[in-house]
Model the fold of this input.
Amino acid sequence: MAYNQKELRELGRIVANPNRLPFDEVVAGYETHLHAALARLPRYTSVINVLEHAAGYFSKQLNKNEKAYYRETLERYRIRQIPLSAVSSILRAWIVRFDEDYLMPQLFFTPYPEALMSLSDSGKGRQG
Done:
């Protein structure tokens, strides 16, 4: 959802294969459009859209203080005061708390294996 939405919709049409094309043609078309979809990094506004969409899954389960905290944190991200990880961590906690099956496997919330992450990656806690 964060990447080129036009190309992602086309990927869905290719997979549906309404014209019953041979498998090799489907794969070739999919590869072409996948490369086009991933050619650019997601736009900043697209990332915010993904965050808002995910937050919508929890709108009925959260109290007003939780919603306000999320909105404040998202606004701080929007004006570039905090990193994306600050907002996505809130959403990831809700995904786990409410056992949201659709969002749980989404790589947007866990883009890297935990073993590859360290405190030094953020520039904090470095010695020296």
